[in-house]
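Minutes, project huddle
Topic: does the predicted pose make sense with zinc ion bound?
PN asked that the exact inputs be recorded in the minutes so nobody has to dig through chat later. Recorded below.
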Amino acid sequence: MHIAPIDTGWMEVIVGPMFSGKTEELIRRLRRARYAKQRVGVFKPALDDRFSETQIVSRAQAALPSVSLTDPTQIIALAEELEVVGIDEIHFFDERIVEVAEELAGRGKRVLLAGLDLDFKAQPFSNTVALMGLAEFVTKTLAICMVCGNPAARSQRLASGGKDRIVVGDVEAYEARCRKCFKPYPLPQQTTFDQT
Ligand code: ZN
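Predicted holo structure (tokens), as shared on screen:
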């Protein structure tokens, strides 16, 4: 995909809507690093537990062990011995994730970051935008619009999520939509999707 920098760290950001294969792409890159016997660690935000060993899983059921945490600054100490650091769901971390990624790359690590670039109103997540600007490499994955089949860069919320910017959900709560088919939530005709 690209030539790896030599004797320096760098950042690779993978962004896109839901159902676009971001985590799958993250896992693919991390696996290749593991095949090369590089020291790889994976982190993701914990939304309930403070700290736990678990895994990141793509929709295609690829999985890698990962550490879940709420405070992104913990990654710096945990990644001390690592050469390659993967961080999934960057949009769920608070803004300190930006300085953490910079710090890790500054220490010579390859830092792989994946997450949503837009929320359910199609408003950019500031963390993701900042990381896209600071990264050496940016990949935008697209889904397929579940209404018309066009390339889809937006995540349409279907179920009732109130005003919360972040609602954890999956196929029952979201659809990938193209620009033409995307409708900012809420819409009156979508009340039939309310699950509360
Ligand atoms: Zn469409």
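Observations noted during the meeting:
- The chain has a mean pLDDT of 87.
- Residues 44 and 145 are 27 Å apart (CA to CA).
No decisions taken; revisit at the next huddle.
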